[in-house]
Amino acid sequence: MAQAGESKQKLRDICRIAARIFYEKGYDGASMQDIAKAVGLTKAGLYHHVGSKDRLLFELMNYGMDILDETVLQKVKEIADPREKLRQTIIGHIDLIVRARDLEITVILHENRSLKGALRKKINLRKREYIHYIENLIAQVQEQSGGKPLLPPSLAAFALLGMINWLYQWFQPEGPTKQSELTEAYADFFFRGLMGSTPPA
Amino acid sequence: MAQAGESKQKLRDICRIAARIFYEKGYDGASMQDIAKAVGLTKAGLYHHVGSKDRLLFELMNYGMDILDETVLQKVKEIADPREKLRQTIIGHIDLIVRARDLEITVILHENRSLKGALRKKINLRKREYIHYIENLIAQVQEQSGGKPLLPPSLAAFALLGMINWLYQWFQPEGPTKQSELTEAYADFFFRGLMGSTPPA
What we know:
9 helices
């Protein structure tokens, strides 16, 4: 088991370095040689760990989804109230996107045109599970608040994901807006858009 | 003048084809040879038109911003009421993003890590002008509606751009949601989030 754990950690280290190189050179512009060199492996050693360049991209994206699970979803799973659960999910997801440490992985995760066939389907399935989780929470919040929903949960979910995932394009953690201000402003904005009013925090 | 017009059209044709190839192969994965072949020029002929691969990427992004100007901003510039102007800008921008014809150009426009130095600065300046236009409209809408603004115009502007620019990730024009439903739902959602209520259309 220690060996399996070490091997998982090694794979994650490789993914993190590969993300930086894909981010800088593009998936097609980065060679396995570039990545092997940055990781400190021979090219053969790198292939031994990851199988192929496609597989490496898949593992990197899969790792991106693992980070979402581990740092966002695990933390909110005990929350029973749907509004609070959704609010905490928004806060956690924003934190993930603006965290410099994971920037390259989350950006590459969303540029998945380079991934093809069955591997792409697997990643898209994991993304869809997360979208369904958000949609379900939104539907529960709408139901709890009574009245006719103002927009379909799926459109609200994608509006939310767009707002959050776009942050990497502009938000500077060292800039004029503090992360806590951003998070509060965005959560309130979303709940107003969803329901016409801000729920108590 | 006819010659300048023809040359501009030729450049736009090249940009459109290059966008498709960059979209498929990535900027670094696509060679000038690939693009020359797709355009029906020799490699030397392509260099004659665009100068360099960097310059081609710049021209393509510049063309993306021209499309935004020509198909969105020109159409709303006579509208005096800020709410209506903002609403029509939202409708026009959504239409631009979901229009299959311009998908590749708008996607490449936002993946501008490949562009470096002065050319990147020029594109970012054009993007910033558009963001300021949206921010100013939002500030006018907030002022018109009176009361204390619920969030800073810049955060509202980026939330809006995120919602809209993310559409390329999921919206299918042939899918279950009609573009007109999407547009209305998103414009209403945005105005509710901004002001706590939906303005009359």
